[in-house]
Write a structure and sequence with these properties.
mainly alpha, Arc Repressor Mutant, subunit A, 77% helix, 218 residues, 10 helices, elongated, single chain, Tetracycline Repressor, domain 2
């Protein structure tokens, strides 16, 4: 027999899943609570009961989407000191690109966060602190090991954003890429090859900067 608590958890879960889909499609402002509840097959009053407001539901849906992505694509390089910085960067980029280009139900995650970044709400601060900043700090540990000593925090941050930007273009410009050169992200194997390209490109740039700093190249 299903307990009341279990039933409540299932209802809340259905609401979150439906909210991710609707918010990804319409954004916070245009999304309607009635549509979310219809997709979740629950009473409209359920949003107020479980989340108090549409804004709280939105924030929880964002967090839920990230948790789902983390479960499917766990990042396994956080504390593995046995890996070289190059291998840690490789795994980070592959993981990140796979998450961004996932075409399963998690594809709503990419759409949702893209909307949030383009038109941020107060929920973004929580996502930055709980999800994005830890990943940024991970790269703050990896990148200086490849660059070598003598680089400012600003220089390191610029390098990190250059790496992240190479991945994000495949998410944010996907409609253009699929019209211009769809073969580079057409299959999981193609996405892996594209990730490897980003790795090689990034490592080449970081090593060039390192060599220039050391005076080995003009």
């Amino acid at each position: 027999m299903v307990t009341d608590d279990s039933s409540n958890d299932l209802t809340r879960d259905r609401l979150l899943r439906a909210a991710v889909e609707v918010f990804a499609q319409r954004g916070l402002r245009e999304a309607r609570v009635r549509e979310i509840c219809a997709r979740a097959d629950v009473n409209v009053a359920s949003v107020n009961y479980y989340f108090r407001s549409k804004e709280v539901l939105y924030a929880e849906a964002l967090a839920f989407a990230f948790r789902q992505a983390d479960e499917r694509y766990p990042l396994d390089v956080r504390s593995d000191d046995q890996l070289s910085p190059e291998e840690r960067l490789t795994r980070f980029i592959r993981n990140f690109l796979q998450r961004l280009l996932d075409d399963s139900h998690l594809g709503c995650h990419g759409k949702l966060i893209a909307r949030e970044i383009a038109d941020p709400s107060s929920a973004l601060d929580r996502i930055v602190e709980t999800t994005m900043r830890p990943r940024f700090k991970l790269l703050q540990n990896i990148v200086p090991q490849i660059l070598g000593p003598g680089w400012s925090d600003k220089d390191i941050s610029r390098c990190i954003h250059s790496i992240i930007g190479q991945c994000l273009v495949y998410r944010h410009s996907r409609s253009l890429i699929e019209r211009l050169c769809p073969e580079i992200i057409a299959t999981p194997e193609d996405i892996e090859h594209t990730a490897d390209h980003i790795v090689r490109f990034s490592l080449a740039a970081l090593r060039k900067l390192s060599d220039e700093r050391k005076g080995l190249q003009p």
